[in-house]
Design brief:
By secondary structure, this protein is mainly alpha-helical. It has 2 domains: 34 residues, no CATH class; 93 residues, Orthogonal Bundle (Helix Hairpins), CATH 1.10.287. The chain contains 5 helices and 2 strands; from the N terminus they run E-E-H-H-H-H-H. Strand 1 and strand 2 form a beta hairpin. Helix 4 runs antiparallel to helix 5. The radius of gyration is 21 Å and the shape is flat. It starts with a strand and ends with a helix.
Length: 136
């Protein structure tokens, strides 16, 4: 183990390199951002949800919300967007495995889409509960 003291900090090079491989980390982030760009480019519903999320973030700073209210709104936005990403993944995998119409595949896709719908409806109610006292 190579140990070096730099400005009062002890740096262990060998252990540090095993814990964080910056090359792999950079490639992982690159792949994640490429996937995010792909979903924004190809999925209309994701773009709509990002737009609604941006609008909610704007209103979060327009109204004097508490930190807890802002946290709940951010979690609701992230939940809907994450489920939409999972829905897109499931649809693409199923399209790859079964390119022709199959009623079983359609049911799986419908169930996946319904998870997004339930989260979106729940997020609307959360938004109404938080924003209505400030609007009325």
């Amino acid at each position: 183990m190579t140990v070096k003291v730099v400005r009062g900090f002890i740096i262990c090079y060998n252990i540090y390199m095993y814990i964080l491989n910056f090359r792999k980390l950079r490639l992982a982030f690159k792949a994640a951002f490429r996937g995010l760009g792909l979903v924004i480019k190809e999925e209309q519903t994701f773009r709509i949800q990002v737009g609604v999320g941006a609008l909610v973030v704007f209103f979060m700073f327009y109204f004097p919300l508490t930190a807890l209210e802002r946290t709940v709104l951010i979690l609701a936005i992230v939940l809907v967007l994450s489920l939409e990403l999972l829905n897109s993944q499931i649809e693409r995998v199923l399209d790859f495995l079964q390119p022709n119409f199959d009623s079983k595949v359609r049911r799986i896709k419908d169930l996946s889409a319904s998870a997004v719908l339930v989260a979106a409806i729940g997020s609307v109610f959360v938004g109404l509960l938080i924003f209505l006292p400030y609007v009325l």
